[in-house]
Amino acid sequence: MSVSPNISDQDLTRLLRTGSKDAFRVLFDRYGGRLQYFALSYLKSEHDSEELVQDVFLKLWEKREILDCSGNLRSYIFKVAVNSIYDFIRRKNVEQAFVEFAAGNQAEVDSTWDDVVYNDMVLQIGRLMDKMPEQRRRIFKMSREKGMSNEQIAAELSLSKRTVENQLYRATNFLKENLRHSPMTAILFYYLFC
What we know:
GO terms for molecular function: DNA binding; sigma factor activity. Belongs to the sigma-70 factor family. ECF subfamily. It is a single chain. The chain is mostly helical and 194 residues long. The protein folds into two domains: 9-95, Rna Polymerase Sigma Factor, Chain: A (Orthogonal Bundle); 108-193, Winged helix-like DNA-binding domain superfamily/Winged helix DNA-binding domain (Arc Repressor Mutant, subunit A, Orthogonal Bundle), CATH 1.10.10. Helices cover 76% and strands 0% of the residues. The longest helix has 30 residues, at 73-102. The protein is elongated. The termini are far apart.
């Protein structure tokens, strides 16, 4: 069934709720360009704004069955877009902070937001490290924070090199396993400890 481009937003929403791909195309044609222009004004990148528009429309399609037919579809779309822009900028800021950290650039952080995100992730890793057995945590910190070699750690703690290697392996696996559902924290972990 073909959907008229002049269909009202309420009728368009009703058709979307039934899974109409034609209605989805009309929705994209109606709001895609405006949404991209809106996103571009914040993101300052054609590529990023295109990616964001695709993300917004994917979210709309995934939630089509719960769209409110009596609500303002345009407002809802732009609300989803604003939230996506916020998440996108946050993710980009976090990624940039980690890239700079990994490159050894410890210049002043551009904004309080970057500080908050970075500190929150370091705190999350710290909490996980606190759950490790004392010896494992100590070995891990000596290796990653103090930059000591396995041989130096073994000598200082009167352990075999093999024990140190085993503890480091277990510590790294524990952190990876617990951070795998948090991609940004996993990136921080990678740059800090791998």
